[in-house]
Amino acid sequence: MIGQLIDGTAIAAKLRAEVATAATALRARNIAPCLAVVLVGDDPASAVYVRSKTKAAREANVDVRDHKLPATATQAELMALVAQLNRDPDVDGILVQLPLPAGLDSDAVIRALDPAKDVDGLHPVNLGYLAQGRPVFSPCTPKGCMRLLREVGAELSGARAVVIGRSVLVGKPIALLLANANATVTMCHSKTRDLPGETRRADIVIAAVGRPEMVRGDWIAEGAIVLDVGINRTAEGKIVGDVAFTEAAQRARAITPVPRGVGPMTIACLLENTVEAATRRRGG
Ligand code: NDP
């Protein structure tokens, strides 16, 4: 390892502490920031995510209301719950855990959220604000990536950034946030002709693909900063990212590991968005 290891666990803990301070200040004014978490069905991975979100929220002085619906819930039942949470004056943020069970339309559910409570930043209104360069709630993993870049002192203005992946959840919002920060952004995907060549020109590489160790060390320019969003489970049950870490770390100036890199930032940013939502709605 030659480059700096970006310790996402430590940076996320620092952000959660900042959020806790902001939440405590709101409570002193009788505003209790509150996140409603909606879990439909019994997907074990989703249940684990929801449990860790709930624990982190409580530790950050953010109230959590868990709403569990059975896998047999209908679209109408889910929409009715969202409408009820939209109306509830004590709820600041609504998180609908994705993916939803087959047969439920997640796009329709996201569109039904009150944009002022859309702390995942996935409502078209919030993605629109982000595209306009004046984000209200940025999606949590992309927001976490930007914080990591800031923490390592990345010079974004004028930097060449390559984002691999163009999903609405990760790749596209990261590319928009980087462009808003004056980076020159190339968004790559499965049809990109020369991915190693594109990546080699980059000062900043962000991989959000979902393919174990696809990005090799010799794709990375000397001194680049590398963020690995990917979470992949190998046949041996090990969790690895989209970047071949050991190889890439020989050339990168700074690089996130997987796990304990980008991952912990997602929940911390969700809590940050929730406290921001409470402040906007109720804090003046
Ligand atoms: P998606 O499957 O929605 O998107 C993957 C993207 O990668 C697509 O744009 C796809 O291109 C592109 N891609 C696929 N194969 C290749 C290839 N061979 N070369 C170049 N690009 C390729 O995934 P997500 O964006 O939702 O997630 C990406 C990864 O990030 C996953 O491993 C996921 O588990 C992880 N993740 C981690 C989070 C965290 O908190 N750390 C949060 C969310 C996700 P195309 O559009 O052409 O199909």
Tell me about this structure.
By secondary structure, the protein is of the alpha/beta class. It folds into 2 domains: 31-114, Rossmann fold (3-Layer(aba) Sandwich), CATH 3.40.50; 140-263, Rossmann fold. The protein has 10 helices and 11 strands. The strands form 3 sheets. The chain has a 6-stranded parallel β-sheet with strand order 1-11-8-7-5-6. A hairpin with a 5-residue loop joins strand 9 (232-233) and strand 10 (239-240). It is globular, with a radius of gyration of 19 Å. The model has no long low-confidence stretch (mean pLDDT 97). It binds NADPH dihydro-nicotinamide-adenine-dinucleotide phosphate.
Quick gist of this model?
The chain has helices spanning 8-27, 44-59, 75-87, 106-112, 124-131, 140-151, 171-180, 195-200, 245-249, 263-283; strands spanning 4-5, 34-40, 63-69, 93-96, 160-164, 184-188, 204-207, 225-228, 232-233, 239-240, 254-255.
Blueprint of the fold:
Blueprint: E1 4-5, H1 8-27, E2 34-40, H2 44-59, E3 63-69, H3 75-87, E4 93-96, H4 106-112, H5 124-131, H6 140-151, E5 160-164, H7 171-180, E6 184-188, H8 195-200, E7 204-207, E8 225-228, E9 232-233, E10 239-240, H9 245-249, E11 254-255, H10 263-283
Parallel strand pairs: 1-11, 2-3, 2-4, 5-6, 5-7, 7-8, 8-11
Antiparallel strand pairs: 9-10
NADPH dihydro-nicotinamide-adenine-dinucleotide phosphate (NDP) is lined by residues 141, 164-167, 169-171, 188-192, 195, 208-211, 229-232, 262-263, 266.
Shape call? globular
What binds here, in terms of ligands, is:
NADPH dihydro-nicotinamide-adenine-dinucleotide phosphate
Q: Total number of helical segments?
A: 10
Number of domains: 2
How far is it from the N-terminal to the C-terminal residue, by CA?
A: 47 Å
Low-confidence stretches: none
Mean pLDDT, nearest integer? 97
Percent strand equals: 15-25%
Number of separate strands: 11
CATH homologous superfamily title of the largest domain: NAD(P)-binding Rossmann-like Domain
The CATH class name of the largest domain reads: Alpha Beta
The largest sheet is: 6 strands, parallel
Q: What order do the SSEs take from the amino end to the carboxyl end, as H and E?
A: EHEHEHEHHHEHEHEEEEHEH
